Amino acid sequence: MDDVPANLLAYKAILGRMGLELHEAASGHEALALVLRHEFAAILMDVQMPELDGYETAALIREHASDTPVPVIFITAGDRSEAREFRGYDSGAIDYLFKPVNDKLLISKVRVLTELWTHRRKLAEASDALRRVNGQLSGLLRGAAEGIVGLNAQGTIEFSNPAAARLLGVETAALHGRSVTDLLSDVLRDRVGADFVSGAMRRAAREDGIYRNTQTEFSVDEAPAVPVAFSLSAIEASQQQDPGFVLVFNDISDQLSAQEALRRSAEHDELTGLPNRRIFQRHLAQCAEGGDDQPFGLLYIDLNGFKPINDQFGHDAGDALLKTLSWRMARLLRGGDSVARLGGDEFGVVLASCATAEQACQIASRLLDTIKASVVIDGLELSCGASIGVAMFPEHAATVDDLVKAADAAMYQAKRGSEGPIQTA
Question: Is the dihedral angle over the CA atoms 53, 54, 60, 64 positive or is it negative?
């Protein structure tokens, strides 16, 4: 900015070699108009100007400037008194040049200011990019289905995404500021240590990069415990000694339910829900572990007349009858006893509570009565009988296999003979 055209030409000639975009103003008003339309790296401003002098123009520019004022270099032919320089600095100037202007000095000062402006623009662009990335990351964290918790070096929770609070059934405020060990189950806390800083979780995360637990429980205050799988990872940051950790967890309730359903299907009869032969054998083995001092009984049951019901009324009616009789038998037994479906219309009953054959026969008689009682299915009154073999351990057999053979043989004896539907080995 200079009201002398020759001076403007001179400055353009000097600065033109730097490849800069130059704008000219012959007055303070023109300079203000340019500042409102453009972003400048620097302003060279003559002090002695008509109407608005350099001091007044610089002050107005600073007053209307954004967060980053434009640096102004005053060019003056006047004296170099301290009062004039102080006035210039007060109005927003950062430097003074005196006429006649030294070409090299002018170029040097302008180069510094334009390089600063370039760096500032790059920094602003990087900040904008960082804000965009942070915004995207924030959106990902908010939308993540997993619970994500940020910890400082001491294990204190400083951040949690919405899913973390939702999965744990609490408000976000209930998590922040507390130690991550407060979330752990008592069993896990005893194993890894209640003090996070000296505990096994932190040590594994720092030394191995990650600590994993595939099944435990998290709980907060009075909220119900949630079965979870989680990982704890150390945050990599070379500028920090011990920057912190991130904990990611999932609610595994559905997974555990599916595993339980698979386990149950592997151990129980699909139709009746009774234990299958595998569990029956396991129960027998457990009872036999007590040795001769703990006798127990075994019943083998085969339904009589079931096949004609299947043939005459169909498998649906037969299945319904089996389910009803299975429920009746299981309901009749005492604690510690169990009934299992061994296949077709055969059942096995382990009588852990029986010490004598007489007691076993009494239970067998009650089971026979409940089996023979008629069952109404879709308006049809159906009924069948049963043959029951009774064997006692160790009275009739010293091993599980021999006990099963003895009860099976007694059941077939009852089925073939005329001595009654219940036979003892």
Answer: positive
